[in-house]
Amino acid sequence: MVVGIKDIFKLIGIIIVAACAVFVCTLFQNYNIDLQSIEGQIDGEQLKILYDAVVMTGKVVIAVSGGCLLITAAVMLGFYIKHYIDTHRKELGILKALGYSNIKIASGFWVFGLSVLMGALLGFIGAYCFMPEFYSVQNDDKMLPKFEAEFHVELLLLFVILPTVVFALLSVLYSLIKIKTPVMELLKGKSVIKIKEVKFKGEASFLKDMKNAVIRGRKSLVFFIGFAAFCYSDMVQMFFGMDTLGNEVTSVMILMIGITLAFTTLFIAVTSVVKANGKNVAVMRAFGYSSGECRRAVMDGYRPAAFVGFVIGTFYQYILLKIMVTVVFKDVENVPEYGFDLKAMIITLITFVIIYEIVMYLYGRKIGKLTLKEVMLDSE
User: Fold this and answer.
1) CA 203, CA 211: separation in Å to the nearest integer?
2) I need a labelling partner for 80 at 20 to 30 A (CA). Which of 190, 242, 276, 372 fits?
3) CA-to-CA distance for 127 and 204, rounded, in angstroms?
4) Sign of the dihedral defined by the CA atoms of residues 156, 158, 159, 164, in that order
5) Model's pTM, two decimal places?
6) Is residue 241 within 8 Å of residue 258, measured between CB atoms?
7) Of 83, 105, 84, 107, residue with least CA distance to 93
């Protein structure tokens, strides 16, 4: 089969996202299960309120973080499978020409689910390594009875085995849909972006049309760049908010996960943009367009997606923390008021703009230096 185990290591984005998702879910769900073991020792109305609030916090974190990361992993999986099929069209066409059925070929794509297994195992092991410190911080005020972390095999089945099976099945089903293409089309080779023909109305008009065509050609990359901005905006601002609310370990954990996801998705997006548009840029260079014009035509079109992602992340983290303080912990004593942190938003925005523009500039310079000869040789 065309798909090999070595291809799994190329799916670094899915591995990282799966690791982050399982790390967070395992940490909070294990804590909630162990917390229930002391429910009978809770004495007093205020402690009962605190107990219920802590349990609800864990459920909210698992639902919000786990659900968001699960959707992201599914989108990444679809992106990787489509990219793999596009770059192995000849091999798949030959297999179909030799008589292999679509379902026979698609069944080999189950190995993409192993990327989820690798990430889930890393997250699961990491969660149990970090668990003693997490338990200590969660009950730092000693208000609840002390309890130790226990291993729960059902979490291994729920957060490691089940996601692996589900994503393996999704890989087979999605690949089955994507390879339902006539044999002759597959044998033509790599799929390319089809740029809509435009009437030349001057240099400025052409560059604008080129920018729009790049966006239309790879809509999934718009999601990745927007999601990268969302993760950075959401998690960094939440770091400041959680730090104010008093849980430093959780806030640092959120910050590290957010930065990791932001850089991972941004890296996937920009590298894919460079690879997908190499031939278009090389042709533009051959017609006399400068490196800066090529860079702006290809890279600048994604800036609005990054801005929208940042705005959504800002509102998302504010609403989430506001709900946590005013709803979940409304009856708990000594919980500080939470309001929108303009200073944190400005710091987050400035740092994101600097990082984003530097990354886009560096990759834009790389794509601007491509020559037609290099692209043609690479595509052979």
Assistant:
1) 12
2) 372
3) 53
4) positive
5) 0.77
6) no
7) 105
